Amino acid sequence: MQTDKPMYGLVLSGGQSSRMGQDKGLLRYHGQSQREYLYQLLQGTCSRVFMSLRPGQEAEVPPHLNYLLDSHELRGPLNGILSALLQHPQAAWLVVACDLPLVQELTLQKLLQERDPQKIATAYALTGSDLPEPLLAIWEPAAYAPALAFSQTGKTCPRKFLLQSDIKLIHPAQDEELYNANNPEDFAYITQKLHHGQPL
Ligand SMILES: Nc1nc2c(ncn2[C@@H]2O[C@H](COP(=O)(O)OP(=O)(O)OP(=O)(O)O)[C@@H](O)[C@H]2O)c(=O)[nH]1
């Protein structure tokens, strides 16, 4: 659905990557760092794209790439999303986490095509599940105030926020695109599948 709001893209890459043991945004699944790969993917559908980083990470970003720094007093991906909504309140945000290595451009386009801008968010969920994936979702400007209020009660889980909100859920062409790579075993598994062209 078309609206007058610009669609910006956000690559969430400000996490600690403690389970992976190295920065998940810098892992290379597709011949370049995953955060740059997703940045380019989002450029196909969004008028502007930003990496979402925690303060201190910006020194490593090539100068031609945009980034936004976390500006709220909380840890976790909701900080990156709130910071984007605050810093560019006129835009809707197509958010993708850097640890989703199998996301395809068609899947991003489906999100845009099936978007309902009257809802707070349009999010993917696994087939047969009503659990939204908040980190592969469009977040509308109207999400900012209730998400901030949610965070001010001490809660940080973006899925819990979406579960209590009026959202639209859609399903990916392949559930595997929601595969979340959090640890070295996940990385090895995905890398092997990608390099051998095997179905997951
Ligand atoms: N901007 C920003 N992004 C974050 C933050 N925390 C997590 N993310 C991103 O959100 C996505 C999901 O992160 P998680 O797996 O929940 O957390 P993580 O800190 O990256 O990893 P662990 O330390 O292993 O839990 C990833 O793309 C992270 O880069 C944060 O505080 N700020």
From TrEMBL:
Main enzyme class:
transferase
The catalytic activity, as recorded, is:
Mo-molybdopterin + GTP + H(+) = Mo-molybdopterin guanine dinucleotide + diphosphate
Entry GO CC:
cytoplasm
> GO terms for biological process?
Mo-molybdopterin cofactor biosynthetic process
Q: Which SUPFAM superfamilies match?
A: Nucleotide-diphospho-sugar transferases
The EC designation for this entry is 2.7.7.77
Q: Which Pfam families match?
A: NTP_transf_3
Per its UniProt record, the required cofactor names are: Mg(2+)
- The superkingdom listed in its UniProt entry is Bacteria
Q: Which UniProt keywords apply?
A: Cytoplasm, GTP-binding, Magnesium, Metal-binding, Molybdenum cofactor biosynthesis, Nucleotide-binding, Nucleotidyltransferase, Transferase
Quote the record's domain comment.
The N-terminal domain determines nucleotide recognition and specific binding, while the C-terminal domain determines the specific binding to the target protein.
What this protein is reported to do is described as:
Transfers a GMP moiety from GTP to Mo-molybdopterin (Mo-MPT) cofactor (Moco or molybdenum cofactor) to form Mo-molybdopterin guanine dinucleotide (Mo-MGD) cofactor.
Annotated protein name in UniProt? Probable molybdenum cofactor guanylyltransferase
Q: Name its species.
A: Rufibacter immobilis
Q: Source gene?
A: mobA
